[in-house]
Design a protein that fits this description.
Order of helices and strands: HHHEHEHEHEHEEEHHHHEHEHEEHEH
Largest sheet: 7 strands, mixed
CATH topology of the largest domain: Aspartate Aminotransferase, domain 2
Structural class: alpha/beta
Shape: globular
Strand order of the largest sheet: 1-7-6-5-4-2-3
Radius of gyration: 21 Å
CATH architecture of the largest domain: 3-Layer(aba) Sandwich
Number of strands: 12
């Protein structure tokens, strides 16, 4: 199956109100109706194309949602004020009290905390599994299981989820497969591979500027309409709305995503090979020895490479901290959380973005206390960047 996410976005015709090449920004919270009956119909969901209130829909948000749906190949999409809002709204729309979720144990720390610590308050139970072990996924299914949740490339261990096989398991057992594709936009198209719902933190690669927080849910018309229903839609009632000015900014950045992903991937592959040559414990799905390399190759849109996330194991947090501080001082990038920025960012995952995961669980999943996760930037001279890193390594 041929996927053309960048082309699908490019072929959209989205003009501004007065013929501008960029869609107009609708800086309005509420909208007028020419007739009272149209307002009534909009509240009941029977007036497609009409706007009611920006917590429900806003034209600027709709432009961005349409572009994201085109990228993913879904019927529709919904944009939110954060990646966590996208994840939590999708889960709460699918699940009610008494339901059960199966999740990969290696996921973003905030998602882990929501599943582990927050959902039990609503009597929603979660079983964490090694998502690479399909038999453990099957064994975890219960009569009240409603969904399987995973990340295409897990954070921070970079495991690769076999989405087609997980989709088969989901469909056989009447479950929904929800995939967080934050690490792999354009590289992998989870919906095309059988996922039911795809979520993003657009804060990361999609926006690429680290100047805002935003999220997205890509799915069927039916699911997106249920999310925005004025009576029981999770997104409508919890209200994690994205500001239309930010939507407009992200939409413009989305049009360069294909170029940026190729450069992120090119630079990460270069560093991975250099780290390997220098005897470091490196983890990158683009390396043939990576456990998920073949699976990712079978799923990916190859022109975009293997992604911009890479990790090395310095064994202890002290050694990791020392190296990161030196790299920041040498101008390699910044000691900071998050990813997808045009400059390289690095952090010690176990003490930062995975700190919500208990240390015993970190050890069980194989997360080293000295792991440094790199989000490799858009450096034009990646060899120069490597030489700076090498200089730091030599001083340890």
């Amino acid at each position: 199956m041929e996927n053309k996410p960048a082309t699908n976005i490019q072929e959209l015709k989205q003009f501004g109100e007065f013929g501008g090449v960029n869609p107009s920004i609708t800086d309005s919270s509420t909208f007028t109706f020419l007739e009272a009956n149209t307002m009534i119909d909009t509240f009941s969901g029977n007036a497609p194309g009409c706007f009611l209130y920006s917590r429900h829909w806003n034209p600027s948000n709709k432009y961005l949602a349409d572009a994201l749906a085109a990228m993913e190949g879904t019927e529709s999409a919904w944009v939110t004020g954060s990646g966590m809002a996208a994840i939590t709204c999708a889960m709460l729309q699918l699940c009610k009290s008494g339901d059960h979720i199966i999740s990969s144990v290696t996921i973003y720390g905030g998602t882990f905390a929501f599943l582990k610590n927050y959902l039990p308050k609503f009597n929603i139970n979660v079983t964490f599994v090694n998502i690479s072990d399909l038999e453990s996924v099957k064994s975890a299914i219960r009569p009240n299981t409603k969904m399987i949740y995973t990340e295409t490339m897990t954070n921070p261990l970079l495991q690769i989820s076999d989405i087609p096989e997980l989709a088969k398991i989901s469909k056989k057992n009447n479950l929904k497969l929800v995939v967080d594709n934050t690490f792999c936009p354009m590289i992998v198209s989870p919906f095309k591979l059988g996922a039911d719902i795809v979520v993003y933190s657009m804060t990361k690669f999609i926006n690429g500027k680290n100047d805002c927080v935003a999220g997205a849910i890509c799915a069927s018309n039916e699911f997106i309409n249920s999310l925005s229903d004025v009576n029981d839609g999770t997104a409508m009632l919890l209200g994690p709305v994205l500001d239309p000015l930010r939507s407009s900014s992200i939409l413009k950045n989305l049009h360069t995503l294909h170029i940026r992903m190729k450069q992120h991937s090119k630079n990460a592959m270069y560093l991975a090979n250099k780290f390997k040559e220098n005897g470091l414990k490196v983890n990158y799905p683009g390396l043939p020895e990576h456990k998920g390399h073949k699976i990712l190759k079978s799923m990916m849109n190859e022109e975009f490479g293997f992604g911009g996330i890479i990790s090395i194991d310095m064994e202890t947090p002290e050694k990791a901290s020392k190296l990161m501080e030196m790299m920041q001082n040498e101008g390699v990038g910044y000691l900071a959380v998050s990813l997808g920025y045009f400059k390289t960012l690095f952090s010690n995952s176990g003490k930062s973005t995975s700190s919500e995961v208990p240390e015993d669980v970190q050890k069980e999943m194989g997360l080293s206390a000295g792991l440094i996760r790199f989000s490799v930037g858009l450096d034009n001279d990646i060899e120069n960047t490597f030489q700076k890193i090498k200089k730091c390594l030599n001083r340890l």
